[in-house]
Amino acid sequence: MELAENYRELDARYYMPAFSRTTEIVRGQGARLWDAEGREYIDCVAGIAVCSTGHCHPTVVEAICEQAHELIHCSNLFYVPHQAELAEKVVEISGLVGGKAFFSNSGAEANEGAIKLARLATGRKKFVAFTHSFHGRTMGSLAVTHKPAIREPFEPLEPACTFVEYGDLDALERAFDGDVAGVIVEAIQGESGVIPAPEGFLEGIRACCDRHGALMIVDEVQTGMGRTGKWFAFQHTQAQPDILTLAKGIASGFPMGALVARKGLEFKGGEHGSTFAGGPLACAAARATISVIEELLPSIPAKGARFADGLAAWNPRQVGLMIGFTVGERCAEVQQYCAEHGVIVNCAADGNIRLVPPLVITDEEIDAAVGVINEALGR
Ligand SMILES: Cc1ncc(COP(=O)(O)O)c(C=O)c1O
């Protein structure tokens, strides 16, 4: 694909400068990307944990094209092709027996839905979330997102939220006051640099929610869809959420989010909705994505371990293909060196490099990427 010659100039003039970017990516295949100058990269970021099946996986491309020829949109006024089958599959892989799904267009929107559902189900108003959490940038999801720099300019936010130190169950216990509808947690904090929950933390949250009649919402927008070697990261623990939220990898890059709620928790007539959510193209892309991930799932632990072994000198935190390590102030410099040497890595918060590659990445690509990252760090 050709970009306009003055692309950067057009962007600077007409697109709001909310992002800082330097590279024009024009093509992707598997775990490879190409920029407008024809340079090739091994992609260890996958559109931030989105392109789960790799770029332009033929099964996903075919499913989208086939559906596009049949019907692009019909609205939720009608039964939507692929929607019910996808809901069945998502509920099945979640393990929330008797549960139901509801689709959205993004992760933030999935969390908005979870917040609404928790309020409806409990009749309570407040939420508890954790330090360094990220749940999205819409007003409700932002209210439960910790990072002051992105939250404070938009205050006052609803719902009211108490932030408790991630991992501190005693502080969580003290945060309940009888009006807490839910606790929202990431099983592994992604935006803050891949910080896994301490052992027993999710089980502790479950017990706390049960004691206080609040709902446990696990945000698996980043950790879900096979990224950690299981369909969902909570499945590495003994805890089951009341509500699970998803997005990112669910449809390989086609915009989509979802929530799955346990048996008995559901939106009824008119309580929630969205024009585009759960449309035919998104559902077709997600069904194809799931069928591909089903095949890939057994290979994820070994691929993750290969990254961790290769990067052992930097003390990585790794669960499946979600890998982070702390490099401090050199983060941006490491990211740039890697890009200049054909490997895309991501500088997450607090000086942490994050790797969330496509699940299709090969051993050869892992070794090549690890080589460049080690070179960057060893300089
Ligand atoms: C854990 C988590 N929740 C929610 C979101 C928001 O998702 P979206 O950007 O699709 O709204 C993100 C995005 O990075 C995320 O990592």
UniProtKB/TrEMBL annotation:
<dbReference type="InterPro" id="IPR015422">
    <property type="entry name" value="PyrdxlP-dep_Trfase_small"/>
</dbReference>
<dbReference type="InterPro" id="IPR005814">
    <property type="entry name" value="Aminotrans_3"/>
</dbReference>
<dbReference type="InterPro" id="IPR049704">
    <property type="entry name" value="Aminotrans_3_PPA_site"/>
</dbReference>
<comment type="pathway">
    <text>Amino-acid biosynthesis.</text>
</comment>
<dbReference type="InterPro" id="IPR004636">
    <property type="entry name" value="AcOrn/SuccOrn_fam"/>
</dbReference>
<dbReference type="InterPro" id="IPR015421">
    <property type="entry name" value="PyrdxlP-dep_Trfase_major"/>
</dbReference>
<keyword id="KW-0808">Transferase</keyword>
<comment type="similarity">
    <text>Belongs to the class-III pyridoxal-phosphate-dependent aminotransferase family.</text>
</comment>
<keyword id="KW-0663">Pyridoxal phosphate</keyword>
<dbReference type="GO" id="GO:0008483">
    <property type="term" value="F:transaminase activity"/>
</dbReference>
<dbReference type="GO" id="GO:0030170">
    <property type="term" value="F:pyridoxal phosphate binding"/>
</dbReference>
<dbReference type="GO" id="GO:0042802">
    <property type="term" value="F:identical protein binding"/>
</dbReference>
<dbReference type="Pfam" id="PF00202">
    <property type="entry name" value="Aminotran_3"/>
</dbReference>
<dbReference type="GO" id="GO:0006526">
    <property type="term" value="P:L-arginine biosynthetic process"/>
</dbReference>
<keyword id="KW-0028">Amino-acid biosynthesis</keyword>
<dbReference type="InterPro" id="IPR050103">
    <property type="entry name" value="Class-III_PLP-dep_AT"/>
</dbReference>
<protein>
    <submittedName>
        <fullName>Acetylornithine/succinylornithine family transaminase</fullName>
    </submittedName>
</protein>
<keyword id="KW-0032">Aminotransferase</keyword>
<dbReference type="InterPro" id="IPR015424">
    <property type="entry name" value="PyrdxlP-dep_Trfase"/>
</dbReference>
